[in-house]
Amino acid sequence: MSEMAGLKKAAILLIALGTETSAEIMRLLPENVIQKISYEIANIDYVKPEERDAIMEEFLEMSQAREYIIDGGINYARNLLNKALGAQRAKEVIDTMNQIQLRERPFDIARKADPQQLTNLLLNEQPQTVALILCYMQPDKAALILSQFPLEMQSEIAERIGTITSTTPAVIEKIEKVIENKFSNLVDNEAETVGGVHTLVEILNSVGRSTEKNIITVLEKNQPDLANEIKSSLFTFEDIVTLEKSDVQKVLRDVNNADLALALKGVSEDIKQAIFQNLSARAEESLQEEMEFMGPARLSAVEEAQQKIVAVIRNLDEKGEIYLRRGEQDAVVS
């Protein structure tokens, strides 16, 4: 969304909300933003009802998405928005929210920089410095950069990403000054929550299988609890929709029917269909009957059943019997 398009939407939204509410909102905005929006409002003569309604709806969706992200993170928001808006619209809203968050965070230039140039710059930095910078980057770009490091450094950087819980403006400012020719000075006034298992999982979900295996192997020796937490999060139950049909069928052969019925409680129709379409008509009918007979189930029990199925999927992947899509293409060997 261009800046002017965004400002015009904001102006139309304020017009639609009425003078009293808009005045309260305007008082909370920075002076330069107030001036820009006021100019837009002054230059709007007429707003079509359908245009007004569309902008109001978009505002409500973005507000709802932001609330979900604050409550439970991106994956939580995505799951709820999928049910409320459908997969395509939910993706558009989440993508927009991600872009807004990226623009508000430090190291903006690093996120826009050429990955190879950035890798060359970071190769001479300390692992803790590289880890902090990667925490602020897009997961796929961070994965590409991480995979370019020597194997022993990959594991050390990954370990630091997984154990970072927060950082301070002073630390960010110090790092930005060290590499001031590459990064902008976008330091927040409050401590930033960065890194952690979720960030590392997002990065590892985008790296190649060999890079992931190397990092996990070393983490199993150095930080076994962290390694176990990462392995359980790398592939979620909802990701089963990304598997090939033949691979889903292989998974279902190794899954207990009671666990499968429990795991499907409360999931989206897309996930249920990914399962049902790989069962015979008789098996599907039997599974649905078991789900109905089971009645309400505790969320913890459902999540435990889903983790059992994820464990089966990961095991089959490690054996090479199924294929989990990775961020990098697998090498072709003869």
TrEMBL record:
Membrane recorded as keyword: yes
The Flagellar motor switch protein FliG middle domain, residue ranges: 115-188
Membrane topology: Peripheral membrane protein
Cell compartments where the protein resides: Bacterial flagellum basal body; Cell membrane
Domain Flagellar motor switch protein FliG N-terminal: from-to ranges: 4-105
Cellular component GO terms held in the UniProt record: bacterial-type flagellum basal body; plasma membrane
Principal localisation: other
InterPro entries assigned: Flg_Motor_Flig (IPR000090), Flg_Motor_Flig_C (IPR023087), FliG_a-hlx (IPR011002), FliG_M (IPR032779), FliG_N (IPR028263)
BP term (GO), one: chemotaxis
Family (UniProt): Belongs to the FliG family.
PANTHER family documented for this protein: FLAGELLAR MOTOR SWITCH PROTEIN FLIG (PTHR30534)
Protein name, per record: Flagellar motor switch protein FliG
